[in-house]
Structure formats: structure tokens, C-alpha cells
Amino acid sequence: MREERPRELRPPREPRRRVRERQWPAYVFLSPWMIGAGVLTLVPMAVSLYLSFTDYNLLEPPHWVGLRNYTEMLTEDPRYWRSVGTTLLYVVVAVPLKLALALGAAMLLKNLGQGRAFYRSAFYAPSLLGASMSIALVWRALFNDGGSVSHVLGWVGIDTGGWVGDPDLAVFAVVLLSVWQFGAPMVIFLAGLQQISPDLYEAAELDGAGRWRRFVSITVPMLSPVVFFNLVLEMIQSFQVFTPAFAISSGDGGPADSINFYTLYLYERGFSASHMGYAAAMAWLLLIAIAAITAVLFRTSRSWVFYADEEGR
Description:
Elements: H1 16-51, E1 54-55, E2 63-64, H2 68-75, H3 78-110, H4 116-129, H5 133-143, H6 148-155, H7 170-180, H8 183-193, H9 198-206, H10 211-239, H11 243-248, H12 262-272, H13 276-300
Antiparallel strand pairs: 1-2
């Protein structure tokens, strides 16, 4: 005869009424955030989604047009596709350069003895100031025809003229402004570097590993979660760049639409041309694109992001 196993004694399930009574204080404290998220985020998103299917000029009531805004955008608007290409170029160039500079500065600060706090604050300051309109206008003056950059390059025999007025160089002026603001990812990289055990570097050095081998085999794998975090944040921010392009191009995306980024063109169609329905459709396509790229990054991260507390990663 089979022996009957003793039944596991489980604690009695708490009545739902008592559970709700214990949970209501949490909902009370969360209610300001929930109301703010609904009123300031969810409701505007729903309204913008509705407007994306309408012809709306900000003065007259919206008129339902279905998918016309989307079809016009994808098939009849060459400036839209130029803005997409310009934005992609900016993201592909600016994000890797910014992360590389931030990682390099973080590694220098990690090995710095005295003055680390001062240099960390000095390197972080551009991240606080760089997004302002005043800094963008100063940047425009530096890279304009006859500005300081053209003079300095002229002294070393490189005659580029004003970058702002050159369709081939204007976008790189905006890229340099973004790269200059490497302070925020640098601080995150520095925090990640300080979490790597020095014992790993000592053991590798005893085995004869040089600096480059220690960087590739220890620093990069151990820092990969931080690299992934910074990559996702910087990618999302780069797709939404607006202020530098608006200030440097005087709001028209020139010269020859060379810095007419996606958000700048969205602003132009929505507020300058009063096609708010078209601008809402552009905003939703941008949201979908960012969500898709972010999902791809999360999916591919399984093959190159390694976590010390998880096996098989």
C-alpha cells in the first residue's frame, strides 16, 4: 500500500475585505501621483492620439480624416524623410562618441587621487547648462562664420569656414554640443567602476594581462549593465533633441534642412504651419520608433550584458 504523505498545512487565506482595508492607505498616498499621471500624461496622450487622425489647425474644431496624416507623412512628404535621416545620423554619431568620452573621463577620475570631487563637478556642469537656449546660442556664435572655431582651425591650416552655414558640417556642430554634455553618463560610469572589485584586476595583472586586456576582459563585461543603462537613456534623449537645433538653425532647420531634426520639423508643422493633427501623427510615430528600438536593445542585451549575480549571462 502507498503511504499517504501528510498534507501541507497552509495558513488560512486572509479575507479580501481585510486585505483591501490594509491596502487603502497605500492608495491614498499614491493618489497624487496617480491623478497627476492621468491628468498630465494619459489624458494628453489620448487626446494627441485622437488628433493624429484629424485635420486640426488650433483655431477650428478638429475634422476627422482617418489615416490621411500618416499616409501623407510616409508617402508624400520628402522633408519628413530628410528629418528622419538627419536624426538617425545624429543618434548614430553622437551617442557612441558621448558614451566613449564619458567612460574615458570616468576611468581617469577613478584613478585620480586628489581633486576627484572638483573634476567630477566640473565635468558634470555642462550637463546642467548645455540644454539651455543661452548655451546653444553661444555655441552658434562659436561655430558661425568668423567665430572662434573657424579662427582656431584656420591657425592650424584647416579652413572650414562657419560650420553653422555649411550643410555638410552643421549637424556636427550639434553633435559636438551633445558630446560636450557627457557629465551625466560619466557620473553613472564612475559609480559602476567603483563597484568592480580590485581583486579582479590584481589577479589579471599577476597572470600577465596588460591594460588593454584588463579593460576588455574585466572592465567591459563588469560594466556592461551600466553601459546598457546609459545607452538606452542617451538613445531616447537623442531622438528627442530640439533646443540646440532650434537655436543654431534659428528655428528653420537650415541650412538646406541639414539640422532639421525630427522634433524640430514636428514643431514647425504643429505651430508654424498650424497642422497640429499632422504633428500629433509625427509624435506617435516617434513614440513607436523609440519603443521599437528600445525593445530591440533589451532583446539583444541578453547576448552582451552580463550580471555578476546571475549565472549563464
